[in-house]
Each structure stands twice: as structure tokens, then as C-alpha cells.
Design a protein that fits this description.
48% of the residues lie in helices and 12% in strands. The chain contains 12 helices and 8 strands. Helix 1 crosses helix 7, helix 6 packs parallel to helix 8 and helix 8 runs parallel beside helix 10. It is globular. The two termini are 20 Å apart.
Length: 338
């Protein structure tokens, strides 16, 4: 059957047992990349072109804890995290040093792959940006040396997005890798000497696997010839630790519902993924409820879509996203959407 946006829909039989799920995963697994840097390993060295703010750090000293946080001037979520990172530094000024390392910030020419600015120009531009941030960046800030830290830290640890923070413990080992907004709890445990490295390594491995599977899934869904395989994989992944990551579930569901790169949509899977994500976040994440509402609208259940979108709007009151959620609600009420 056809949807209003001329994309075909499909309904794939859900994977109903753990054994069936493992069979699907084994058939699709291929080469899962193994990270060269993970929890418990010695932290790579600091490779800095310019220290922009605060005292320079030549190496990680024993007995002291460090947070190495990667960011870029163009990255909205990075900028949004600056005040929290500053708060963390202020709170633990005695025994923790935060180093904000600027990466991925030299624009390249799409045709030639050449950098559009020199290293000196980048240093000047980023230094000005940091100065303008003022108190919002109350910690040590540096610019990496020619992509080396991006490679030896981020790429080596399988990290494809910023902001990303690494906690380096008082013995110079990587203790935790994640989003700086989630750093408080692990940092307390690391500082207190109570950190469970084995559990953290397992959790990190699971999140890398979830990212691998979501990328593989998107590749299958982008081609009509492999879409059915992709949707089968989507159902199988709900029986793995992948289902514990609401952010990934939501991204996949939203992509299935809205991406122009998806030639065939399985609305039932999208609704299932978004429903699980809503449950994992206790129905408190407005953006995930917004995804679920879209799924129900596209399935033709407009009343449920309006009910969910109203809930999302209430949760987002006073936030920048509220305006968009309200516009979508009005579209649902008039039986349309962009």
C-alpha cells in the first residue's frame, strides 16, 4: 500500500524467539570492528598544537584524575554542554583537570579534500571563539595537533560523534567514555576508587555494538532490495542489549518514518522501536514520544497520534523544541504533516 509521501510500506513478520533473533544476527554480523582503545587501557598521550585557555598539561600525572572532552565550534550539543563541564571542573578543582580538546574543526573542500584554512587560521578562529564563551568555558582548552587526537582517541575508541568525554583515572587509564552530560556519576565512582572497570568495559562494548548494528541496519534499509532483511534485523535487535539504548531506538524509528533515503517503510517496526524507547525513558522524553506519535499518525491512528503529541508538548513546555511540537500537533489535528 502507498503512503502520502509516495513511499511504499511493508509489513515484516516480527522475530518471536531469542533463537530466531540469534540466527538473524549471525547471518548479518559480518566484520564487527574491534576498537583499539577501550575501558581499562592506558590513555593515549596528549598531542596539542596550541593551549588556548588555562595551564598546559604535558602528561597525565599519577594520583590525579583528568577529563578529556572533545568538541568543535560548529557542534551545537558541544556548546550546550560547556556550562555543565565548567561546573564539573569547579566542583572538583582539587583533584580533577578538565581538558577541552578541539577536533574536527578545520573545514575541508568537498571537491579536493584540501583544508580551507591553515592551522594558524584555525588557532586564531578557535581562540576567539573560546574567548567569546567566557565563563561558559571555565576549564583548560586546547586545539589538537593535525587530527592526531581525533585518530588516537576518538576513532580508536569507536567514537563517531561529539561531544565525547574520556575519564582518565589517577593511574593514567581510561575509566569511562561517554557524553559529558552523563559524566557526574561515573566521575564520583572513579574518584572514590569504587569504579567497576569490568562492568564499564562491557557496557561500552554493548554501546559500540548497538552503533554498529544501527549503521548496518540503515545500510540495508536504504536499498529496496535489502529492506526486508533490514526490518527482520530490526526486530531481532529488540532481543539484544541494543534494546536498552533508547537514543539509538529512537533514531532508527525516526529514520524509518521520515528519511527520504528509505524506499520502503515498516511502520509497525518503527512504532515498536519508539514504544520500547518510551518505556526505557519512563515516558519522560518529549522527542521520543514525538517519534511514536508520528508512527501512529502514519499508520492512520490519528487520535492516538494527537494524544501522544499533546503529551510530548506538555513535557517540552518552556524548551526550544516546544514550538515545533506544537506545529506538528496542529498538523495532526488537521490530518496532515510535513
Amino acid at each position: 500500500d502507498e503512503q502520502s509521501d509516495d513511499t511504499k510500506t511493508i509489513r515484516v513478520e516480527p522475530v518471536r524467539s531469542a533463537d530466531d533473533a540469534h540466527a538473524v544476527l549471525d547471518a548479518e554480523r559480518g566484520e564487527m570492528p574491534k576498537p583499539g582503545l577501550t575501558i581499562g587501557m592506558k590513555a593515549p598521550k596528549l598531542e596539542i598544537a596550541k593551549w588556548v585557555k588555562g595551564d598546559s598539561v604535558q602528561h597525565f600525572e599519577d594520583g590525579h584524575t583528568y577529563i578529556v572532552e572533545f568538541w568543535a565550534t560548529w557542534c551545537g550539543p558541544c556548546v550546550a554542554a560547556f556550562p555543565h563541564v565548567s561546573e564539573v571542573q569547579k566542583e572538583h578543582a582539587d583533584d580533577v583537570t578538565v581538558i577541552g580538546v578541539n577536533i574536527w574543526d578545520r573545514p575541508k573542500d568537498r571537491e579536493t579534500g584540501e583544508f580551507k584554512e591553515s592551522m594558524e587560521e584555525q588557532i586564531t578562529r578557535v581562540s576567539t571563539f573560546v574567548k567569546e564563551q567566557g565563563e561558559r568555558m571555565s576549564y583548560t582548552v586546547a586545539i589538537e595537533e593535525s587530527g592526531k587526537m581525533a585518530e588516537h582517541w576518538m576513532t580508536a575508541a569507536g567514537q563517531g560523534g561529539i561531544p565525547a568525554a574520556f575519564i582518565v583515572d589517577n593511574a593514567g587509564k581510561v575509566a569511562w567514555i561517554g557524553h559529558p552530560m552523563s559524566i557526574d556519576e561515573p566521575l564520583e565512582e572513579v574518584r572514590a576508587g569504587n569504579w567497576d572497570y569490568k562492568a564499564a568495559a562491557e557496557s561500552h562494548k554493548e554501546s559500540l555494538e548497538a552503533r554498529f548494528w544501527s549503521q548496518h541496519l540503515m545500510g540495508l534499509l536504504a536499498d529496496e532490495g535489502t529492506a526486508e532483511r533490514g526490518y527482520k534485523l530490526g526486530y531481532a535487535l529488540l532481543r539484544t542489549p541494543f534494546a536498552n539504548d533508547p537514543g539509538t531506538l529512537n533514531r532508527v524509528a525516526w529514520t524509518v518514518l521520515t528519511s527520504s533515503r528509505i524506499p520502503v517503510r515498516d511502520l509497525d517496526l518503527a512504532v515498536t522501536l519508539a514504544s520500547v524507547a518510551c518505556e526505557k525513558t519512563d515516558w519522560k522524553d518529549a522527542s521520543i514520544i514525538d517519534t511514536l506519535a508520528r508512527g501512529y499518525f502514519d499508520k492512520g491512528d490519528h487520535a492516538r497520534a494527537i494524544e501522544l503529541q499533546t503529551k510530548a508538548l506538555k513535557l517540552a513546555e518552556g524548551q526550544p523544541m516546544a514550538e515545533d511540537l506544537e506545529a506538528t500537533l496542529e498538523q495532526y489535528k488537521s490530518n496532515t504533516h510535513d
